Amino acid sequence: MLKKVAALAVITALSGCSLIDGDKYSQSTQAAIQQSETNLTNQLHSYSAQIDKQNDQINYLSIELSNLNNEVAKLRQDQAAQFKKLKAKKTTSEPPKQAKPVIEPSQTIVLGGIEKVKVDTIKQQFDARVDTGAATSSINAVDIQEFERNGKTWIKFHISDDKTAKEDQLWIESPVIRYAKIRQSTSEETERRPVVELWVQVGKIHEKAQFTLADRSQMSHPILLGREFIQDIALVDVSKSYLQSETK
Q1: Distance CA 126, CA 57 (A)
Q2: Would 140 disulfide with which of 64, 216, 224, 240, CB 3.0-4.6 Å?
Q3: C-alpha angle with apex 110: 108 to 113, nearest 5 degrees?
Q4: Percent helix, strand and coil across the chain, each rounded to 5?
Q5: Using an 8 Å Cβ cutoff, are 139 and 216 in contact?
Q6: Tens digit of pLDDT per residue, the chain (248 long)?
Q7: What is the structure's pLDDT at 24?
Q8: What is the pLDDT of residue 206?
Q9: Which of the four CATH numbers 3.40.50.150, 2.60.120.10, 3.20.20.370, 2.40.70.10 does domain 108-241 have?
Q10: What is the SS3 assignment for 90?
């Protein structure tokens, strides 16, 4: 009988220990789950805060981009307005190009072999040889000086004329249109000479012509008018002189 009672006591004690261990395991598991939930909640809050920060940055960048677009649009409007003003100013400042007059056969202008040429910029007249054998026109230019103006190459010079005293010579300034290679009759070597455009007048003919700044010191006249100047507007009678000149 005592043996049965002892066995029953041992079984009861073991059952109690098992229940106690089960409670401890359940509490540990719940604590771990709660900790995991807490960690997940903290991570979610952290991610949410990061997303909010990124959204704020995106909104800021969107505002900055909108402001930049507005500034670019304003700059384009200002540039367009400025370009329009410059174009209008250029149109009003530049003299209208004069078309070459259409001359009827009965109104044909005849030039002599020598004529007076008036250069607009200095309001002076010079003797000029009219030569249909020469393609281009040229000027006996001295004291040539190149300089830069508004990013372009300009040149200033005097027209050398035996009839004009040196102290009475006036400077002519003009942009360089191009450069031409000139070969002197006494040499095989070529020289690089600037070419300018000048408004000149011969009698009733008022034209803008290109002139090569050449050394004509050995020639009898400081200016040469070539056929590019006279074509379609005049004929030449080399046997006569000063047919269209006001003064001889």
Answers
A1: 77
A2: 216
A3: 160
A4: 40, 35, 25
A5: yes
A6: 555 555 555 455 555 555 455 566 677 888 888 888 888 888 888 888 888 888 888 888 888 888 888 888 888 888 888 888 887 776 665 555 555 554 454 568 899 999 999 999 999 999 999 998 889 999 999 999 999 999 999 999 999 888 888 888 899 999 999 999 887 666 677 889 999 999 999 998 999 999 999 887 788 899 999 999 988 888 999 999 999 887 65
A7: 64
A8: 94
A9: 2.40.70.10
A10: helix
> Hunting for tokens 């809050």 — which residue is that?
45
CA pair distance 23, 54, nearest whole angstrom: 46
pLDDT at 118: 95
Interacting residues of 241 by C-beta distance below 8 A, sequence separation 6+: 112, 113, 114, 115, 248
Backbone angles phi, psi at 129, to 5 degrees: -90, 130
C-alpha distances (whole Å) from 137 to each of 7, 23, 25, 194 are: 142, 119, 115, 12
Q: Which amino acid is at 231?
A: Q
150-187 in b/e form (b: 16+ CB < 10 A) is eeeebbebbbbbeebeeeebeebebeeeeebebeeeee
Provide the token pair at 237: 């009678």
Cα–Cα distance between 121 and 172 in angstroms, integer?
A: 7
The tokens of 41 are what? 């909640």
Spatial neighbors of 193 by CB under 8 A, at least 6 apart, are: 179, 180, 181, 182, 212, 213, 214
